[in-house]
Amino acid sequence: MRRIVNINDGWMFYYRDNDPILVNVPHTWNNLDGQDGGNDYYRGKCIYQKTLIKPDYKNEERIYLQFHGVNSSCNVFINDNKVTSHDGGYSTFRVDITDYLNDEDIIIKVEVDNSINDRVYPQRADFTFYGGIYRDVELLIVSKEHFSLDYYGGSGIQYDAKVENEDAYVFVKTYTNVEEDVLVQLFDAQGNLIDEKIGKDVSLKIENVHLWDGINDPYLYRLKASLIVDSLIKDEVSCYVGVRTFKFDSKKGFYLNGKPYPLHGVSRHQDRKLLGNAITYKHMDEDMKIIKEMGTNSIRLAHYQHNQYFYDLCDREGMIVWAEIPYISEHLSNGNENTISQMKELIIQNYNHPSIVMWGISNEITIKDNHRKDMLKNHHKLQDLCKKLDSNRTTTLANYAMCTPFHPVTKITDIVAWNLYLGWYVPGLFLNDLFMWFYHFIYPNRCLGYSEYGAEGMPNLHTKTPHIGDHSEEYQSKYHEYMLKCFKRHQFMWGTYVWNMFDFAADARNQGGEPGMNHKGLVTFDRKTKKDSFYLYKAYWSEEPFIHIASKRYEYREGKYTTIRVYTNQKEVSLYVNDELKKVKKGEQVYTFKIKMNEVNKIKVVSNSLVDETIIYSCKKKKKEYILKKGKSQNWV
What amino acid positions are annotated as catalytic residues? Predict the structure, then answer.
């Protein structure tokens, strides 16, 4: 039976011309210089090397070396023999190294390269391209008869599900390196056998099917396939099965299992402060916990393939997922082959995740609208590829703000979305309403979504008169208050995705007084501070009772009067100032109270048993530390 041996520890790392140091992977060499601004982080070649004691294995077994993420390109050597190369920094790849294991000690060398080039995506985008072996490395030991391991990182098992009345059929295909019997079994969540068949292409029946129903009830069956040779089980693979139906409607939005299911989405980058992309499962668990707390039901996993562990989390927690490749910002004529291989890896490795309903083909590809004919041809190839590999899911793409609704690239995928920052990069929040209305008017049968929208917000910057570009926490909240109301006015939208759930590193940026960062997150980069906008979304999306006073960090306020802003999902709020009841209001989500300032103001808001408190102080002049200092402001573009 197959065994997995983790070999993360004890790699010698050669950084440029420096002496080697001992590191454990996951690891990146850009965890510091990729987050400090200046767009000067090292993009080049580094080497990881490890001496491995020859593993204990039988003559009839094969050993695969398995990488889950090496950015961006690499060459892999075993005892100076080149065994494989890989282009694309976000997917799993593996190679059979059995025939190279002639010595007792095995020297594994990995040349990793995130250099600037014109053939491997991404090359131009608003995030840091961390170099390194930043996900797990393993030895996968299998019988010589095994499920296929050599096809774009796939697992050798694939299923589709079809609902018929109260029942469902699960169609299973398995791929092996030998022509032998495969026993396919389906179990419910309690481990009870539902159905079983022998064959590589079988249909299993579920009577009275329990549907995978998003965050309400993400029920998962389990599928197991056993390769049988001479009455012995030689290899096994398994995956979880979620049975669901979905559709996109140009007039009514998204449907899950035949019912309206508005997609309240966020986008997520995977990096962390001082770690880059070299994060742990614990970090991913924390991200999911924060995302769930806000009431989110959909995640756009931008702008690349994420860790398999996080897709598994999405399955278990009921998130609707938009998965995409990093075909982004600028078409590279020499990169067409790489977009095809990355799309194949994305779909083949993630086919069995019920959470995924959309394959994203590209993002803001017309920022530099060059080589248009070749770019459009490549998009058509990707669209056809997605449909060939997976005819059951929907394709989409995210358009650049300046890409007009009439651009031919917007007509290729099944559905379409735009990255629009109207009210942040350009004045006029009302332009969002205008765009949605106009697009829906000219293309009433085309499904429209918002793939990105947002505004920078710094928890240390505050003002009583928030305006575009001030980077204050108050303007970010003002922006999102408008957008949430806007989306309620246009319920034909198939989905909306806040940019971003968390602040993330973009080394080309210098904005908000902290270079190297994109601060559009609803939560800070270190995940320690939830900005006021986080609680605004929680008021709209979450059913967990809560109440939150906004602008608590705006402790010292100038002027005779100030406004107390409250976010809650309760229908009534009482305001107390210095223990005196001032006002009771009924409403929804956002409550505002104007109060006359005392020297010290103890603020308390109450709704049923929920209480939140803060203290604000009167001051004569606005605090200098609340104002963004003038300096060079640099957008990534």
Answer: 364
